What we know:
By secondary structure, this protein is α/β, with parallel strands linked by helices.
Amino acid sequence: MKIMCDTNVIIDVLLEREPFVEDSYKVLSLCEEHKIDGFVSASSVTDIYYLVRKYTHSTDLAYKAIGKMLEIVKVCSVTNNDILTAFQKRAKDFEDCLVATCARSIRCDYIVTRNKKDFEEFDILLLTPTEFLQQFS
Length: 137
């Protein structure tokens, strides 16, 4: 099984955001244990770095967070075709559209996100971390 992890799932774990950290951590643990294949988009990596640095005020911690994330999930390349496809959709949120486009291009089974409404217009299966864990059990 392949999943695309939305940025918020990764950030919930890295910044220990309550009450979301527990289920997001369990999803990422499944990826780390190679029970599922977890992905993030290449564009999400820069967002995650930025957010961790912003909230921790530490470049070193931001790099450590990215390093740990790279041990757990794979980075999905963002191709020229992915950018063009997302661009042509003229979605309200280009970044979410790009994540959905990438998830579709690598044939992910789901996007795991806390913000399902952000992806509803992209016709891809969505689960919150809690829903994913219920289905995976």
